[in-house]
Structure to design on (351 residues):
């Protein structure tokens, strides 16, 4: 049985922790290598994919995900094959995804698939004879982006447990948010969700998080952001607030302990997403209030330790005036794609 990574739940806690740890070492090795090019001491990058081939099958546009997977494979000593545009491949002649996965498995040792259908990765994996990694399937999941997000967040905050993370934007169709909320609940972060109206997380997803981790994220509205940064406690404590949906059923959660100690809770991270216009099924979201941040939002002293994240591409959710702010981590998230995916590819190839 090949080792597929189709959803964040395909990785155990130990595997995720080990990937994050090893990615840190990998990143340090990559940095030493860059320094070596300028006369420093070269670190040895493991050539663990030497002689192996990765096939990237992208049925949807991608910059970061595809290029960082491909860079990761080359860095590990492997090679990459790719149909430059799946629309110009046999798919345009009517070939099924199942047949494509089967055929390409005989050319490559690992497949990386991005597809516009929810669940496409699982279908393809059933027909693939080699490990398949989901690089985003419709509105469903994007587990490797979540690994990059967790990696960046953990490096910035030292831990995931007990930190408070707000996730805003298109939570209905944003696959990065879908994988992230499950991972954050699993690692016992406190989650505040700030959907634009009509773009709430699907019920089945929140239900799953509640069943699996005994946890329901708190819901806020875009206009609440400043109040939220000032006093996250208020959101948890004031039962009269209309959006006060939070109920922590798991008494082990650090939040409860922190509330009991009346310790102020600050927003540790704000994770933004763009409206997934290409996947919207109607136009009802035209003109709805959407969470956007600019230097003004981030000037509030209560946000001095709030890091700002985004899987990119951004389409106006974050002002470029924030790019040089040390709290802006979105380019670091993107850069982490190479070391994180190197470690993941090594892992699936080794099994
Ligand atoms: C994301 C995606 O494809 O879901 N992009 C990415 O992989 N970094 C986010 C998005 O497109 O909004």
């Amino acid at each position: 049985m090949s080792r597929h990574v189709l959803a964040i739940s395909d990785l155990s806690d130990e595997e995720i922790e080990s990937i994050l740890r090893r990615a840190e070492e990998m990143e340090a090795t990559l940095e030493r290598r860059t320094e070596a090019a300028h006369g420093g001491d070269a670190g040895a990058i493991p050539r663990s994919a030497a002689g192996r081939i990765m096939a990237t099958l992208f049925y949807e546009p991608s910059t970061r995900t595809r290029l960082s997977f491909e860079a990761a494979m080359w860095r590990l000593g492997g090679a990459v094959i790719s149909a430059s545009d799946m629309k110009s491949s046999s798919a345009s002649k009517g070939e099924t995804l199942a047949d494509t996965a089967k055929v390409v498995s005989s050319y490559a040792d690992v497949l990386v698939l991005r597809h516009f259908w929810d669940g496409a990765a699982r279908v393809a994996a059933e027909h693939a004879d080699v490990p398949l990694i989901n690089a985003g399937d419709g509105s469903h999941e994007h587990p490797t982006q979540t690994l990059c997000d967790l990696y960046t967040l953990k490096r910035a905050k030292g831990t995931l447990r007990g930190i408070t993370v707000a996730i805003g934007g298109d939570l209905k169709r944003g696959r990065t948010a879908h994988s992230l909320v499950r991972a954050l609940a699993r690692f016992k972060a406190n989650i505040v969700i700030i959907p634009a109206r009509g773009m709430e997380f699907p019920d089945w997803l929140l239900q799953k998080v509640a069943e699996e981790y005994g946890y329901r994220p708190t819901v806020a509205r875009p206009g609440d952001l400043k109040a939220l940064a000032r006093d996250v406690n208020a959101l948890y404590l004031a039962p009269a607030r209309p959006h006060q949906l939070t109920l922590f059923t798991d008494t082990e959660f650090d939040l409860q302990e922190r509330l009991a100690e009346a310790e102020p809770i600050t927003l540790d991270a704000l994770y933004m997403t763009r409206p997934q216009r290409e996947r919207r099924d109607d136009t009802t979201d035209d003109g709805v209030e959407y969470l956007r941040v600019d230097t003004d939002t981030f000037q509030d002293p209560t946000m001095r330790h709030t890091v700002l994240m985004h899987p990119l591409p951004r389409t106006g959710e974050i002002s470029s005036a924030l790019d040089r702010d040390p709290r802006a981590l979105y380019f670091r998230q993107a850069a982490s794609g190479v070391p994180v995916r190197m470690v993941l590819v090594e892992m699936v190839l080794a099994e």
Q: What stands out?
A: The pocket of N-carbamoyl-L-aspartate is lined by residues 64-65, 136, 142, 145, 175-176, 273-274, 311-312 (CB under 6 Å). The CA atoms of residues 205 and 211 lie 10 Å apart. The two ends are 9 Å apart (CA to CA).
